[in-house]
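Progress against Task 2.4 (sequence-to-structure conversion) is shown through the following example record, which the project officer requested during the mid-term review.
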Amino acid sequence: MALKCGIVGLPNVGKSTLFNALSSAKAQSANFPFCTVEPNVGTITVPDERLNKLEELVSPQRVQPTTIEIVDIAGLIKGASKGEGLGNQFLANIREVDAIVHVVRCFDDDNVVHVDGKVNPVGDKGVIDTELQLKDLETLDKRLEKLRKQSKTGDKAALKALDFAERLKAHIENGNSARTFEVQTDELASFKDFMLLTAKPVLYVCNVDETSVESGNEHTEKFKAAVGDEDAEVILISAQIEADISELDSYEERMEFLSDMGLSEPGVNKVIAACYALLNLITYFTAGVKEVRAWTIEKGTLAPGAAGVIHSDFERGFIRAEVIKYNTYVEYGSESACRDAGKMAVEGKEYVVTDGDIMHFRHNV
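Structure tokens generated for the chain above:
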């Protein structure tokens, strides 16, 4: 699936360093603003211990994890909504992603220049929010002009959409993002159609110094308090630690480094898993001697749609799905043992695939 998370933030907060640690695609990382002008796109493997366990049980010829795309977008500054600092280009890049990873600087270092001269993650977030909100207001004004013309004819749908757009505009004008606006079920179509930047789901990543990764610091506490009503996840990482880990060649070296730092897993694993959840994605598996593979689908996908991720013919000619729950597979140790024990379910077209399902599709194409 071509779903993307975009990394945004002010210049020099650690976006490109984080991107480099997340992805095999290497963005330029330097101590000056705008070192990233064109957005860098990387394909990131989603860590999943279940895949490792299935490999152990099945001993396949190959293992294929699932992936998501991450986009490193150049730093925004005040005035970006009006084109300042290549703002129009950057905002266009944000429009193309499905979710936002908002990186804020939560470390003090006189050797790393801050674009505003002081470390203030709450203020930094406010700058980004304001620029995105201003762009959304511009978008809504254009839509409102069109809706007002349509509503003059008495078109009930246009009148309803006009009322919704005006209420949404007032919400944003009060300094709020569109994602915090309460949208009724019959308003969802209009809301999605507006394609607002601040409607995108967001994950906050606090880039901290090495000593603050576990417990945070004064900056992170203030930031968490500021976003407490947003229902958004906040993750603490040290982009520099992640960069150091990514330079190590072997799994053993990385685990030893983490142990020395008092960490159980790389921070990028937490970021990737959070991005995956933010995009409303889940994983199902296929497991055979030729290949054990993880497949990405959106939560709520029915069995034929899940089959279509493998091949469109599987969806078009779908007959049934044979499903084993992951924990059951691990308990019995193999597909044949699950089948013999009556633990393999046969599901039809209305089956909603759940995270961790191990599936085999029957089709007539």
